[in-house]
Amino acid sequence: MSTLFEMKDLNSFYGKSHVLHGVNLQVNQGEIVSLLGRNGVGRSTTIKAAMGQVESTGSILFKGEEIIGLKAFQIAHKGLGYVPENRDIFPSLTVEQNLILGEKANKKSRWALADMYQLFPRLRERQNTSAGVLSGGEQQMLTLCRTLMGDPDLIMIDEPTEGLAPKIVDLVAEYLKELKNRGISVLLVEQKLAIALEISQRVYVMGHGSIVFEGTPDDLRHNDVIRKEWLEV
Prior knowledge:
- By secondary structure, the chain is of the alpha/beta class.
- It contains ten helices and ten strands.
- The protein has a single domain, classed as Rossmann fold (3-Layer(aba) Sandwich).
- Helices cover 35% and strands 28% of the residues.
């Protein structure tokens, strides 16, 4: 299995605040990897660093190419997709207009509007509705699908189930499985341990800006010490 994305000795900073301390992490082709940990340990910063949104040193390789120092739009054009926790929809545009904005110019995508509407039929029902009046769950569906319209090779998703009803959480889990079926790699930041362990091939646990565990979901299930010290409340 070939490595698609790799962080080596990544250190990241907000001004004088040193947030990430020597993070090493990788995602292979067609793999779902979850980054777990309590709030405030640096998980969101890790994927923001990959998108060039945080001052960083070390190395981030995507498809074998160094991307530290590139701007976010340049990184996105190389095939790295990002779904932020705050969703970032365009509220005055319709659902369909939001989706179309996700397309990359002059690139043939593996995904079409029909695929988005098949993944989330609710979006088809709301396609002519202004995105700003959608429910939180519908906005999350829209953000996930808009990112896919850009045809990324790896999609980084920050807390996709945060604040959603259980039915919508199940839909998001199915969406993530469909990505894997289509060969899209995923780096998932997720608070709900059960979902992360169900859909991931590998998991990392972060504590105080460093990786404190790497292994399979089964490895983590059987590691009471790591779960109690770094995950359980």
